[in-house]
DNA sequence: CAGCCTCGAGTTCC
DNA sequence: CTCGAGGCTG
């Protein structure tokens, strides 16, 4: 599953018979076919078992696919061999359905990462200013080692373990209850009797170094790359007996849903978790200052080698749980915690080639092909090179990257895994540079379609201008279209759309919804006859596509893959307009305004250049106003544009990009063809019910009991929009002392105004 | 207008 | 996960 960074160990083993050496299927007689069918079925079944249960595949994916294809061919020619138990009938590899999905009642968070002393100082400062603490006021922060394992959420009801779920993507995890029950550190029943009736304990499953070595030396023939992979592989076993035989351990450090509070501070919570019968990390401590935190970090790093288990940093948390609640969440991380990572491991290797990939928006991304090298327990053979400037070692403004050293093919380069995941090139050894190595010439044309690749002013990436003509862009757009946050059609993943695109079955999103008409029952060419497909799998894909003809507006908008319109902007737009028709109409009406605004921006640019040439001060605002006046916009266009910009989170750049997409003939036609097949669902109303849900709020003046940031976060949690200035759309103004023009304007517009105490009453509710 | 925060886009491992 | 850039705030 994507997002799951569990790796599988590949043991030495007897390889599958090479498919190439086999005679053509057409030459087989019935007897030989049956024998081979049986052999291949067995092979595939064994491979499945190894892959899914043992976490130790003995054949490569390619070999596995070859086996399955060969089986298909045989079954096409000798249909009597196809039976319900045949591996070919078990379509789409059961990878995602091995464990039941469990939605987390409270999301399992990830943490913000920091690497430097400055990051730690900034974290503490941010917390202090958010809470509006006086400079001298005490602020306790806990520090604990960050265990390098995999996180697990354990749900207890009435003191009994009822469910264990992996983190998954943070919102939905996998049910591994049976396996969790076999781990000695995880109590099946809580100790004592003083626990909340519902209690979700969260922590880290890990394996100690000693146990890891023992496991790898056992005669199972399986070799795991590192303890983390071993722990992950052991926990995700179909057979709990296998998990039970693996020496897994567990540290508790956090919690999810709780029916009643059980502590007032983080440290107290840790002690309570011990009372409940959990192991907690003995190095956890309280810090009173940034100096304390850095000292704790340094001390824990010193102990790293002798701890006996892997850690990759130190986690800091605001100790007071009341403060934690006030600080709340950003989009994916809590404001009250920071993971202070240890420096990443590095390794030197040779850069063998530089390839250029073309993305969905046409961005040309250079990728380093490296001589394989082990970095932090993982073999790395590719690394990102970001962009043209990164390779050149110098930014557009002349600033130096890596001390100005450029990267050349043939160079010795130092590689590390940023955030322990993405391989990056950190340095170049000029002393080892081959004399014939030349500076890398970044292509000026798209390597996929040959169109010019242009770098716009102020942009760091070069983009292919081919648009939908470029096959790379077209296929990346399709992959995006079927991605999880977009249409998410079951059984139609990135790999399959790519294949269907290559074969000319799907050229654009609309084609997905006519797939059955063109390749379904009764057609000359049919999906069920494709390699690896059958009657059942084809029918279920068509059914999954049918289901997605009804699509929420936000998903549709995101799926279109318009530059700058991501998941959040799509949500904002959907909520702002409420329907596809309203959005489409607004964009069409606003088009002249978009054109005028672009012209105005160009006029501003020209004015800046002219001013510089003439040595006078630029007057951008006047140039813009003049250009707009000259355009003589119809009022409805100006209004529609203003309405678009007024949407929360939508600025001129995004609005322009959206407008361009809808005005581009080719793109618009493709969108219209798609939407003709769909029923677009309006955005759901927010579930929260509070006096301010769905309302637009403006804060002004000084807030004395809460900071601005805190008030905004709280209001948004209650389903309100927080705007910066008062307009006709404003529903409520919260005015503290010193409120000025905004309060006056609100009064003119007849908008309700409340003071901070009234606001606090709402915020608490 | 500058600085902060969040979002979008691209990428690696398999 | 990170970088760059867009949008908002002060």
Automatic annotation (TrEMBL):
<dbReference type="InterPro" id="IPR004150">
    <property type="entry name" value="NAD_DNA_ligase_OB"/>
</dbReference>
<keyword id="KW-0460">Magnesium</keyword>
<feature type="binding site">
    <location>
        <position position="341"/>
    </location>
    <ligand>
        <name>NAD(+)</name>
    </ligand>
</feature>
<feature type="binding site">
    <location>
        <begin position="110"/>
        <end position="111"/>
    </location>
    <ligand>
        <name>NAD(+)</name>
    </ligand>
</feature>
<keyword id="KW-0862">Zinc</keyword>
<dbReference type="InterPro" id="IPR001357">
    <property type="entry name" value="BRCT_dom"/>
</dbReference>
<comment type="similarity">
    <text>Belongs to the NAD-dependent DNA ligase family. LigA subfamily.</text>
</comment>
<keyword id="KW-0227">DNA damage</keyword>
<keyword id="KW-0479">Metal-binding</keyword>
<feature type="active site" description="N6-AMP-lysine intermediate">
    <location>
        <position position="146"/>
    </location>
</feature>
<dbReference type="Pfam" id="PF01653">
    <property type="entry name" value="DNA_ligase_aden"/>
</dbReference>
<dbReference type="GO" id="GO:0003911">
    <property type="term" value="F:DNA ligase (NAD+) activity"/>
</dbReference>
<dbReference type="GO" id="GO:0046872">
    <property type="term" value="F:metal ion binding"/>
</dbReference>
<dbReference type="InterPro" id="IPR013840">
    <property type="entry name" value="DNAligase_N"/>
</dbReference>
<keyword id="KW-0234">DNA repair</keyword>
<dbReference type="InterPro" id="IPR018239">
    <property type="entry name" value="DNA_ligase_AS"/>
</dbReference>
<feature type="binding site">
    <location>
        <position position="144"/>
    </location>
    <ligand>
        <name>NAD(+)</name>
    </ligand>
</feature>
<dbReference type="InterPro" id="IPR036420">
    <property type="entry name" value="BRCT_dom_sf"/>
</dbReference>
<dbReference type="InterPro" id="IPR012340">
    <property type="entry name" value="NA-bd_OB-fold"/>
</dbReference>
<dbReference type="InterPro" id="IPR013839">
    <property type="entry name" value="DNAligase_adenylation"/>
</dbReference>
<feature type="region of interest" description="Disordered">
    <location>
        <begin position="1"/>
        <end position="34"/>
    </location>
</feature>
<feature type="binding site">
    <location>
        <position position="317"/>
    </location>
    <ligand>
        <name>NAD(+)</name>
    </ligand>
</feature>
<dbReference type="Pfam" id="PF12826">
    <property type="entry name" value="HHH_2"/>
</dbReference>
<feature type="binding site">
    <location>
        <position position="204"/>
    </location>
    <ligand>
        <name>NAD(+)</name>
    </ligand>
</feature>
<feature type="binding site">
    <location>
        <position position="167"/>
    </location>
    <ligand>
        <name>NAD(+)</name>
    </ligand>
</feature>
<keyword id="KW-0520">NAD</keyword>
<dbReference type="GO" id="GO:0005829">
    <property type="term" value="C:cytosol"/>
</dbReference>
<dbReference type="GO" id="GO:0006281">
    <property type="term" value="P:DNA repair"/>
</dbReference>
<feature type="domain" description="BRCT">
    <location>
        <begin position="687"/>
        <end position="760"/>
    </location>
</feature>
<protein>
    <recommendedName>
        <fullName>DNA ligase</fullName>
        <ecNumber>6.5.1.2</ecNumber>
    </recommendedName>
</protein>
<dbReference type="Pfam" id="PF03120">
    <property type="entry name" value="OB_DNA_ligase"/>
</dbReference>
<dbReference type="GO" id="GO:0006260">
    <property type="term" value="P:DNA replication"/>
</dbReference>
<comment type="function">
    <text>DNA ligase that catalyzes the formation of phosphodiester linkages between 5'-phosphoryl and 3'-hydroxyl groups in double-stranded DNA using NAD as a coenzyme and as the energy source for the reaction. It is essential for DNA replication and repair of damaged DNA.</text>
</comment>
<feature type="binding site">
    <location>
        <position position="446"/>
    </location>
    <ligand>
        <name>Zn(2+)</name>
    </ligand>
</feature>
<feature type="compositionally biased region" description="Low complexity">
    <location>
        <begin position="10"/>
        <end position="24"/>
    </location>
</feature>
<dbReference type="InterPro" id="IPR004149">
    <property type="entry name" value="Znf_DNAligase_C4"/>
</dbReference>
<dbReference type="Pfam" id="PF00533">
    <property type="entry name" value="BRCT"/>
</dbReference>
<dbReference type="InterPro" id="IPR033136">
    <property type="entry name" value="DNA_ligase_CS"/>
</dbReference>
<feature type="binding site">
    <location>
        <begin position="61"/>
        <end position="65"/>
    </location>
    <ligand>
        <name>NAD(+)</name>
    </ligand>
</feature>
<feature type="binding site">
    <location>
        <position position="470"/>
    </location>
    <ligand>
        <name>Zn(2+)</name>
    </ligand>
</feature>
<keyword id="KW-0464">Manganese</keyword>
<keyword id="KW-0436">Ligase</keyword>
């Amino acid at each position: 599953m994507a997002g799951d960074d569990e790796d599988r160990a590949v043991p030495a083993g007897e390889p599958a018979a090479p498919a190439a050496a086999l005679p053509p299927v057409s030459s087989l007689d019935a007897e030989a076919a049956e024998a081979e069918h049986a052999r291949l079925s067995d092979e595939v079944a064994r491979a499945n078992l190894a892959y899914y249960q043992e976490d130790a595949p003995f054949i490569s994916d390619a070999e596995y696919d070859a086996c399955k294809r060969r089986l298909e061919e045989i079954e096409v020619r000798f249909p009597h061999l196809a039976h319900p138990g045949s591996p070919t009938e078990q379509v789409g590899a059961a990878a995602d359905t091995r464990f039941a999905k469990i939605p987390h009642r409270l999301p399992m968070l990830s943490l913000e990462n920091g690497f430097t002393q400055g990051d730690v100082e900034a974290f503490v400062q941010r917390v202090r200013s958010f809470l509006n603490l006086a400079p001298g006021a005490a602020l306790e922060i806990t520090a604990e080692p960050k265990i390098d394992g995999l996180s697990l959420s354990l749900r207890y009801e009435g003191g009994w373990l009822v469910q264990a779920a992996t983190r998954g993507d943070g919102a939905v995890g996998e049910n591994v209850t049976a396996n969790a029950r076999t781990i000695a550190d995880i109590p099946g029943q809580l100790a004592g009797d003083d626990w909340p009736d519902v209690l979700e304990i969260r922590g880290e499953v890990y394996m100690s170094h000693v146990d890891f070595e023992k496991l790898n030396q056992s005669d199972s023939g399986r070799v795991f790359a590192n303890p983390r992979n071993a722990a992950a592989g052991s926990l995700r076993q179909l057979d709990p007996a296998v998990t039970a035989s693996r020496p897994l351990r567990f540290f508790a450090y956090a919690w999810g849903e709780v029916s009643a509070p059980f502590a007032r501070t983080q440290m107290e919570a840790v002690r309570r978790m011990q009372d409940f019968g959990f192991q907690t990390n003995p190095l956890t401590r309280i810090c009173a200052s940034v100096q304390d935190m850095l000292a704790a970090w340094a001390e824990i790093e010193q102990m790293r080698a002798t701890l006996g288990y892997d850690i990759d940093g130190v986690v800091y948390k605001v100790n007071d749980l009341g403060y934690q609640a006030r600080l709340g969440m950003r989009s994916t991380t809590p404001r009250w915690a920071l993971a202070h990572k240890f420096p990443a491991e590095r390794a030197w290797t040779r850069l063998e080639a530089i390839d250029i990939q073309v993305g969905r928006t046409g961005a040309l991304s250079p990728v380093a092909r490296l001589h394989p090298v082990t970095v932090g327990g993982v073999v790395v053979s590719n690394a990102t090179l970001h962009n043209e400037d990164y390779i050149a070692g110098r930014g557009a403004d002349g600033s130096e990257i890596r001390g100005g050293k450029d990267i050349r093919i043939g160079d010795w380069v130092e590689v590390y895994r940023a955030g322990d995941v993405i391989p990056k090139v950190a340095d170049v050894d000029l002393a080892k540079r081959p004399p014939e190595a030349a500076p890398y010439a970044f292509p000026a044309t798209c390597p996929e379609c040959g169109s010019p690749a242009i770098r716009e002013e102020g942009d760091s990436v070069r983009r292919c201008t081919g648009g939908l003509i470029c096959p790379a862009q077209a296929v990346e757009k399709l992959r995006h279209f079927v991605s999880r946050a977009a249409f998410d059609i079951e059984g139609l993943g990135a790999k399959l759309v790519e294949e269907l695109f290559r074969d000319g079955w799907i050229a654009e999103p609309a084609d997905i919804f006519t797939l059955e008409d063109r390749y379904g029952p009764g057609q000359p060419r049919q999906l069920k006859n494709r390699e690896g497909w059958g009657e059942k799998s084809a029918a279920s894909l068509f059914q999954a596509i049918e289901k997605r003809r009804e699509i929420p507006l936000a998903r549709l908008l995101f799926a279109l893959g318009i530059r700058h319109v991501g998941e959040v902007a799509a949500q904002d737009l959907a909520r702002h307009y409420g329907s596809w028709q309203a959005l489409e109409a607004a964009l069409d009406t606003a088009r002249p305004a978009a054109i005028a605004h672009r012209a105005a921006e160009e006029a501003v640019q020209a004015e800046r250049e002219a001013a510089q040439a003439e040595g006078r001060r630029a007057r951008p605002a006047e140039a813009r106003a003049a250009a707009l006046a000259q355009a003589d916009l119809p009022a409805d266009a100006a209004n529609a544009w203003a309405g678009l910009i007024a949407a929360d989170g939508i600025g001129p750049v995004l609005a322009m990009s959206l407008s361009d997409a809808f005005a581009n003939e080719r793109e618009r036609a493709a969108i219209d063809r798609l939407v003709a097949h769909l029923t677009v669902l309006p955005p759901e109303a927010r579930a929260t019910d509070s006096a301010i849900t769905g309302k637009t709020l403006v804060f002004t003046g000084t807030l004395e009991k809460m900071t601005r940031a805190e008030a905004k976060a709280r209001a948004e949690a209650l389903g309100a929009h927080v705007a910066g200035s008062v307009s006709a759309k404003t529903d409520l103004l919260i005015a503290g002392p010193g409120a000025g023009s905004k309060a006056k304007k609100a009064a003119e517009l007849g908008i309700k105004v409340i003071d901070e105490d009234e606001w606090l009453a709402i915020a608490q509710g």
